[in-house]
Each structure stands twice: as C-alpha cells, then as structure tokens.
Amino acid sequence: RPLADDARGVSIGRPLPNLDCHVVDESMALVPLGVPGELCIGGIAVGDGYLGQPARTAASFVPDPFGAPGSVLYRTGDRVRWTADGTLEFLGRTDRQVKVRGFRIEPGEVEAALRAHPAVRDCAVVVRAEGTERTLAAYLVADADALPDAAALRDHLRERVPEHMVPGLFVRLDALPLTPAGKVDRRALADDRREGIAPAAAHVAPRTSTEEALAAIWGEVLGRKTVSVDADFFDLGGHSLLAAMVAARIRAGMGVTLPLRRVFEHTTVARLAAHVDEVRGQAPKPSGPTLGRVARTQRRVGTVDDGILKSL
C-alpha cells in the first residue's frame, strides 16, 4: 500500500547515469509508483561482491532479472519508493523490519507517516515486549499543548498506513534517547515501560460491580493502572490476542462465557458490562466490597491464561 503524499521520507534524488535503479518487493517484482520496496542497483558501477565474504556476496549480489544475461543486481537493503517527479525517497532499512502478530512491519514507514502530523517534531517506532506479547510502540517528541490524544494519532495513521502498522501505544518524550554515537537508542526505548498518552475524553470510573471487575481485567491485560469505562479497548492498544485474553479472564474470573466476537462488538467497559449483565440475566449491581474478591480471582487465573486461550 502506498504512503500518503504528506508522509514523506528523505529524498535521495535521481539515479546517476549508467545506473539502473529498481524498487522491488520480496519476490523481486517491480512495485508501482509510490509503493515502498527494496532498492536494487544495476549497471556498470556494480562490483563483483564483497572481498573474502562469499555468504554476504551471495545474499546481496544476485542475477539481474531486468538486465542483460549475466549481469548482476546489487540489493542495497534500503527501503525506498519512487515519487511522481522521478526521484527516490529513503524510508528506512529492510533489516529494521520487525514482525508483530504475523505481519512484517518497517518502522521507518510508520515514523514517516507520524512525522507528517504537524504536532510531531520527532519520533521513533520500536517493538515493546510484554512477556510473550509484542506491541508496536511509538515514542513522540512534540509540544505538550499541541500533541493530540492517542485516538487522534491512530486516525491520522489509519489514513496513511495499513491497520497492522498502527502502534498500540503512543508515548510522549521530551527528547529521544541517543547512543554515544548520536543515533536513536532503540534498545532503551524497547525497554521503556512508561504508560501511553491517555485518551482526551474525561476518565469515567466504574459505576457497577460488573464494570469494576471488567475494568480490572482490562487494566491487567492492557498494562494500565486505570481504565475509563467509556474508553475504547482498541484505542487503548488492544488487539485480537489481548481480546482473547479478556474473554478468557471473564470466563475464569466472572464465570461468564462470551464468544470472542462479543469483545469486538462491545469495545468499552460500559457496553461490555451491560452485555455481561444481560447474559447473566440480572440488572447491574452497585459496586461493593465483593469486587476485591473478583479482582483477586482474576490475578490468580492470570498464571493459567495460556491454557485457557488454547480452549477458545
């Protein structure tokens, strides 16, 4: 999928004379104008390989499917796209690609799309691991009074990149951490455990025992201390695997079995609580001291989630 026109990378100009530049996908097929791919170079300037490094040579110097028989193509490992004026834009490195929930993602593409937002001065996108779960996280440098909430940032990105490339977490920083060499310290960001930017809407506390129990489950699954009952699960960083964990914890901790699709249909605590009460066949009950026991039960079953998930 092409990036939006305002999600620009760094221009590297036009090819030099006697150089053939091709932008290809993983199968070495040419990609259309505006679609990101790997930059491959052919022509008289391409050498024979890396001295004394046969394995690296075999990976980077490949037969040229677009040139004369016997010609060689150099795979740069640079992720680029052609623009309408015939120049190339650098979007990142293919060796920075990450895999999140089965999708290969180039963080540079997400960063380019984020920088197109007028409030974002700088950013870095990394994968943050929470146990066995991997989440795409965006760290942003912006003026505090100008940076929108997480839902607005997701809407901005959804117009520019596919849904699986939208980070589940947005964190505001005063400055990006740097290595001694002056590059962004992505390892430090991946180890960062700050909470993300909160939604703009006012926090609404649980009003019933069911809402309080569900808010506790969401908080544990999403890694948040508090959850507004009107906040959207997916705007808080939720995704399909976490939704499955929510369904499992509801069954184990609250004794209610819900099809996974119900979590997708009722994406706030308030709406899901109303559905749970409907399934139970009871009216919502005011929050009370019994909720402490429910929360303790949820914490205990947290150690057996994997087994529960297998039965979903």
Briefly say what this structure is.
The protein has 312 residues and is α+β, with helices and mostly antiparallel strands.
Primary descriptors:
312 residues, six-stranded antiparallel β-sheet, disordered N terminus, disordered C terminus, 11 strands, alpha+beta, three-stranded mixed β-sheet, 22% strand
Q: pLDDT under 50 segments (min length 5)?
A: 1-7, 285-312
Radius of gyration: 24 Å
Secondary structure: number of strands = 11
Q: Roughly how many Å apart are the termini? A: 33 Å
What structural class do helix, strand and pairing data support? alpha+beta
Shape: elongated
- What share of the residues does DSSP label as strand, in percent? 15-25%
How do the helices and strands follow one another from N- to C-terminus?
EEEHEEEEEHEEHEHHHHHHH
Main sheet characteristics:
6 strands, antiparallel
Count up the helices. Answer: 10
- Helix content estimate: 25-40%
| Arithmetic mean of pLDDT | 80
Question: How would you sum up this structure, described in words?
Answer:
- By secondary structure, the protein is α+β, with helices and mostly antiparallel strands.
- The protein is built from ten helices and eleven strands.
- The strands form three sheets. Strands 1, 2, 3, 4, 5 and 6 form a six-stranded antiparallel sheet that branches. Strands 9-10-11 form a three-stranded mixed sheet.
- β5 (72-82) and β6 (88-93) form a beta hairpin.
- α5 crosses α8, α5 packs parallel to α9 and α6 crosses α9.
